[in-house]
Amino acid sequence: MNDTPRSVVIKGTGSYTPANIKTNNDLASTVDTSDEWIFTRTGIKERRIASEKETASDMGASAAQRALEAAKLEASDIDLVIVATITPDMPFPSTACLVQTKLGITNAVCMDIEAACSGFVYIMEVAASMIRSGRYQHALIIGTEKLSSILDWEDRTTCVLFGDGAGAAILGPLETPGVGLLDFTLGSDGAQGDVLYMPGGGSANPATADSLNDRLHFLKMRGREVFKLAVKVMEQAAQEILEQNGLEPDQLSCLIPHQANLRIIELLSSRLNVPMERFYLNLEKYGNTSAASIPIALDEAIRSGRMASGDYTLLVAFGAGLTWGAALLKTP
Ligand code: UT7
Question: Hey, whose CA ends up nearest to atom 30 of ligand 1?
């Protein structure tokens, strides 16, 4: 084992979103809602919906293929695959193992980590630490979700908010110190677990005719409570990581928040006193894609030139659990 500290950088990113678009007006034809209500309360206009046969591992593999191309690496270069998802193809084997096979990666350790919408920030820190240890060279990290498979399409309070998609990044070492993934802060509070959860399908409520009738296999959420907690923990995580690194919010060139609700992001912007123009936003097009939300936005931000050399970027997330986390990046 080599314990020399080394930088861990993003070598390439990729994303994938299904072609099928469901607009707010489409939803208004099936539940009692309107484009005006959804857009003014959330900032969402439309979301992507995977086809019946398309799985989280399919979408993750497509995003990962693009990340490999961007990194100019081959499947054989990857020795670690970590997937963040709350909608795995099945309880086991892991979605990471399924993606591994789809991409022809033959010599890698593969695992899933579940931290809901904070999942990508969580797996970024896990992968970065494993690379820093010297034991692993190139990690493929993926956030992928087929949330359409766990939404109650009769519940207007939740089904209008979410969508499907995947984002991926390849992380690897760089001998130049002080660049790349500079720092992380993560947190969890299980006592707040009942604000956002899915009761069915695990060992507490395995699938039975009763569990289906009771609609336990759908996401449940107390939206207002989640909203308040989200604003609090995102601000806290952002302030904490800036303080840890002696930075002021104004030194951030780009902020990539979990794309759940534009009003949450606007409150974060005003509390941090960072203008909205610095925030990368795409929730209008995709809605909330949980663990895929930050990596899709990260891929789009990098490809559109939003992260220039020397720039500081902040990723900040919150999600079910409750979980939250922030990552501080400096583009090499
Ligand atoms: O990754 C984490 C995921 N979760 C989140 O980020 C969710 C955070 N929370 C939110 O984004 C907001 O709380 C929501 C967008 C979910 C809801 O917005 P709100 O301003 O907090 O609305 P509300 O829940 O207080 O509901 C206001 C009204 C209610 O009607 P009454 O009781 O005032 O008559 C709801 O029944 O809006 C009604 N309503 C709807 N009306 C039309 C709830 N959903 C809808 C809908 N269309 N889709």
Answer: 157
**What's the fold here for domain 181-330?**
Peroxisomal Thiolase; Chain A, domain 1 (3.40.47)
Angle at 119 between CA 86 and CA 185, to 5 degrees: 155
The per-residue pLDDT for range 134-174, each reduced to its tens digit, is 999 999 999 999 999 999 999 999 999 999 999 999 999 99
What's the pTM value of the predicted model, to 2 decimals? 0.97
The Å distance, Cα 132 to ligand 1 centre, comes to: 43
Helix boundaries (H) for 31-169: 35-42, 56-71, 95-103, 119-132, 156-159
CA 149/CA 53 separation, integer angstroms:
11
Can you give the residue ranges of every domain in the chain? 7-176, 181-330
State which ligand 1 atom lies nearest to the alpha carbon of 293.
1
pLDDT tens for 265-307 read 999 999 999 999 999 999 999 999 999 999 999 999 999 999 9
Q: How far is CA 290 from CA 121, 145, 203, in A?
A: 11, 7, 23
Ligand 1 centroid to Cα of residue 306, in Å, is 32
> Is 138 tagged catalytic?
no
243: CB partners within 8 A, 6+ apart: none
217 counts as catalytic: no
Ligand 1: lining residues by beta carbon, under 6 Å = 33, 37-38, 41-42, 117, 156-157, 160, 221, 223-224, 226-227, 230, 260-261, 288, 319
In contact, 311 and 299? CB cutoff 8 Å? no
Options 97, 117, 159, 254, the catalytic residue: 117
Class of domain 7-176: alpha beta
Ligand 1 centroid, distance to 36 Cα (angstroms): 13
* Closest among 136, 241, 172, 176 to 12, alpha carbons compared: 172
CA distances from 22 to 46, 155, 161, 164, 250 (A): 6, 16, 11, 11, 37
